[in-house]
Write a structure and sequence with these properties.
heterodimer, A: 220 residues, mainly alpha, Methane Monooxygenase Hydroxylase, Chain G, domain 1, 6 helices, 86% helix, B: 356 residues, two-stranded antiparallel sheet, 13 helices
Chain lengths: 220, 356
């Protein structure tokens, strides 16, 4: 096998790993949304617990992929100019997935009864949907960085819009919560629950800031 | 005879070593400096293709220098090359950008002056014109390559990793072409002045191939360049990327390719003949400065990036290069004249054979 084809074979295998990593993070967003909807609508049922188990497995697979990508990039001396940037991007996406899993786990343990009432449940589902869209936009932005850096800007803009929407919904939910006649400890618990969901959109926005710099570096 | 021949060749071999130490960075510096290629791989490929280019295609550019003045005594060739080597060495030490081509041309004019031979002014003006044309042509070629390449890359939407692999392969291929062209074009600087007084007889190789005296000279010169590449070019290669302006890997590929193509244009007998066949003017086959071609190419890429690129170019260095077009040959010619006088009158060596 000539060195050129070896180089391209290694590149292809690494591309597949990065694509799989991004697929898994996107899948994590979907599982989180499905799990939260189940939790809000049906409470702690076996299907909800199953979603947590799936998220834990996804996270482990992503960690393996991230480490393999890191090893290959350094041992094969690939993309020297972007190696550090790519690893930081993958690490931040991994941190986002880890937070998704932690938030869902916290909900199952600490906040399972915190949202009640038709109106609040509908608004909480809306918040989760917007947050998950910000996560998906971050994954799409990362994909664009690898293949089509000029499109990164569009995804960055989407992330910022979703993050701002998530903030707005959170404020609305908090106002409703504190205007209700629920006991103070429930109000405080509800406030924390909303903050951890909204925090996921903030993490996605941090990734968008990084992507905007990477897109400039990647421009020809 | 062979030992004295090699002794007289030492100044040319020194020039070759110096060329390998400095100019190899123009063909593989970007790849090594950006860590896309290991130095050992770059040095091996560069040495191999410089020697190949020198031996197989060195006659064209070397002959162009010969038309300016045929240094017809070995001691004269030694002194002429020594004057050029000392000029390059002094100017480099003074921090001035210097081209070994300009030093060699000046030294040949010095020999003409000392020996009373006429300098072919039309050939001299053609050579001087190439000093200006070479960086300009490199700038135009680089700008066109950059525009075309960027358009294709945007359309192809290659994955970052695949783009990196492609650029890596491209830098190797451009480096190989650049090394071949460097050998073919710049061997004239190293060994051109020794060709008319070549000390080696032609050798018939198995299969009836003739290995001429000048090809043997070019092989020796190529080996000296390779020695320079292995012993001294590593640091230059590692620092070359940041010398003029920061370059992306794609920008680096464009610069290396533009440099290789420009050197090839000024070395290829076939291309020159082809243009004449089309009714176009002949390309003068003479050694040109690869450093100045690289600088021209970098400026060509910078101009495309508008004000941002222009701000990053060190314009003071360009002005100093332009001043070198005059100061280098004048200094070398005067030094050559003085050294020829010393070698002839102090050491009693024949530095030129009277015509007829």
């Amino acid at each position: 096998m000539n060195p050129g084809s070896t180089l391209f074979a290694k590149t292809r295998s690494l591309e597949l790993r990065i694509d799989e990593f991004l697929d898994k993070v996107a899948e994590g967003g979907i599982l989180f949304e499905r799990g939260m909807v189940l939790l809000l609508e049906r409470g702690l049922v076996p299907e909800t617990e199953e979603k947590l188990e799936q998220l834990i497995q996804l996270k482990e697979r992503c960690n393996q992929l991230r480490r393999r990508v890191m090893d290959t990039l350094y041992s094969e001396m690939l993309i020297p100019e972007f190696r550090g940037d790519v690893l930081r991007l993958l690490s931040n996406l991994y941190r986002l997935l880890d937070s998704i899993k932690n938030v869902f786990q916290d909900f199952l343990i600490e906040y399972s009864d915190v949202v009640s009432g038709q109106q609040s449940i509908a608004e909480a589902k809306e918040l989760v949907a917007v947050v998950v869209q910000s996560v998906q936009a971050a994954v799409q932005g990362a994909r664009a960085f690898f293949r089509n850096p000029e499109a990164v800007r569009d995804h960055i803009n989407q992330i910022r819009v979703y993050e701002s929407e998530a903030d707005g919904i959170t404020v609305r939910l908090k106002r409703g919560l504190f205007a209700s006649g629920r006991p103070l400890e429930q109000k405080l618990l509800g406030r924390d629950a909303l903050a951890v969901i909204d925090g996921l959109a903030d993490l996605a926005e941090e990734i968008s800031d990084e992507l905007s710099i990477l897109a400039i570096k990647r421009a020809l | 005879m062979l030992a004295s021949g090699l002794l007289f060749l030492s100044s040319g071999l020194f020039l070759g070593w110096s060329l390998g130490a400095n100019d190899a960075s123009n063909v593989f510096g970007s790849a090594v400096g950006s860590r896309m290629l290991r130095f050992s791989t770059a040095a091996m490929l560069c040495s191999l293709f410089v020697i190949l280019g020198a031996v197989s295609a060195g006659a064209g550019a070397s002959g162009g220098l010969g038309q300016l003045g045929a240094v017809n005594a070995l001691a004269g060739s030694f002194t002429t090359a020594l004057a050029a080597a000392l000029t390059v060495s002094w100017m480099t030490r003074a921090g001035l950008p210097v081209s070994s081509t300009q030093a060699v041309v000046g030294a040949i004019v010095g020999w003409n002056w000392f020996s009373g031979s006429a300098t072919d002014l039309s050939q001299l003006s053609r050579i001087v014109a190439t000093w200006v044309v070479c960086p300009l042509l490199a700038a135009v070629v680089a700008a066109l390559l950059y525009l075309g390449g960027a358009f294709l890359l945007r359309r192809s939407r290659l994955h970052l990793l695949r783009l990196d692999a492609g650029l890596r392969l491209g830098l190797i291929l451009a480096g190989v072409l650049g090394s071949y062209s460097l050998g073919a074009n710049n061997i004239g600087n190293v060994m051109g002045v020794f060709v008319p007084a070549a000390p080696f007889p032609a050798v018939i190789l198995p299969g009836g191939l003739v290995f001429s005296g000048s090809q043997q000279l070019f092989l020796l010169g190529g080996l000296a360049i390779a020695l320079g590449v292995y012993t001294r070019s590593r640091e230059v290669m590692i620092t070359v990327g940041a010398r003029l302006m920061p370059l992306s890997p794609f920008g680096a590929l464009v610069v290396v390719l533009a440099n290789a193509l420009v050197l090839f244009v000024f070395s290829s007998q076939g291309l020159s003949d082809g243009l004449v066949g089309l009714g176009l003017p002949r390309i003068p086959l003479i050694p040109v400065s690869s450093s100045q071609a690289v600088i021209g190419a970098v400026v060509g890429v910078a101009l495309l990036q508008g004000q941002r690129g222009l701000r990053q170019v060190r314009w003071g260095m360009l002005a100093r290069i332009a001043s070198g077009w005059v100061s280098t040959p004048v200094l070398s010619a005067v030094l050559g004249y003085v050294l020829l006088f010393v070698v002839q009158n102090v050491f009693g060596q024949v530095v030129f054979e009277p015509p007829g």
